[in-house]
Amino acid sequence: MEKKSSWKGFIESISVIQFILTFLFLGVLCVVLMVYLMFTSLWILPTLYLSWQILDWHTPERGGRRTAFVRNWRVWKHLKDYFPTKLVKTAELSPSKNYILGCHPHGIMSVGAFTCFGTESCGFTEAFPGVRSCLAVLGGLFRIPLFREYIMRIGLYPVSKRSIEHLLTRSGVGNAVVIVTGGAEESLFSSPGVNTVVMKNRKGFVKLALENGADLVPVYSFGETDTFRQVVLSEGSLGRKAQAIFKQVVGFAPCLFKGERWFLMPYRSPVTTVVGSPITVPKAPSPTQEQVDHYHQLYIEALTTLFHKHKTSCGLADTHQICII
């Protein structure tokens, strides 16, 4: 029994290493490989691929090439078990409607969002029959040759207006578009015990919900910020300014973090992703600023209520507060 447990732990660790190395380096390696091949006798291969990629340029924003086979890989189950991560359902989502789920906080690698909505390892399809989770990520990732094929097969989509509108208008109903709204800026606040959400000026997803008549659903991943320890640089410091510049140029912020082992292995901190109740949103093709502000405020209130209602059952002390900036 002990031997089986040790083997399971080993497999989980390998699965996590795969996820982290993919997250950090696979895109870079794909670019290096393509450049290298251009200067070898195999130059025709990257030339043909890049020519085809240009023709296929808009596919990620037009539904991609999602496959159930990749989303159900066993490796995702082991990744989920490592922490473990868990999906908690608090209300029904009707398959006759479309939704925008705002997921908070970003953390370092958004483990909760990826395992619960980017794969089938946490049982989203079983929990919400007829509803399809569509995790939206940084659009620049879909410009990377070869890497784009991999993330499209997983079922990831660019977090762009065109992509989200396609999912909400041309892919039928029962689509739940998941957006980690705090993005790169929110990742810079990730630290154990800290529940900081960047939301006050993030209203684009609310406007999209109104334009397309998609209900809003708050989601909070408890324990997300406990998976890594980050060196949080003070506001105004040279390092923080460098992070801000990098984020503006590249689209994500370089975080200085370490894990439990070998600096990269995350802490085995349970991550519980709680899906809240939908907020009914009317369809307004040209929403006013007052409408956007109104539903944005309703969303913040619903997110705050969700946090306080579930914080103690998800391992936080009753004194913990959510900070919305």
UniProtKB/TrEMBL annotation:
It is an enzyme of class 2 (transferase). GO terms for cellular component: endoplasmic reticulum membrane. It is found in: Endoplasmic reticulum membrane. InterPro entries: DAGAT. Its EC number is 2.3.1.-. SUPFAM superfamilies: Glycerol-3-phosphate (1)-acyltransferase. One of its GO terms (molecular function) is diacylglycerol O-acyltransferase activity. The chain crosses the membrane at residues 20-45. GO terms for biological process: triglyceride biosynthetic process. This is Acyltransferase. It comes from Clupea harengus (Atlantic herring). The gene is LOC105906583.
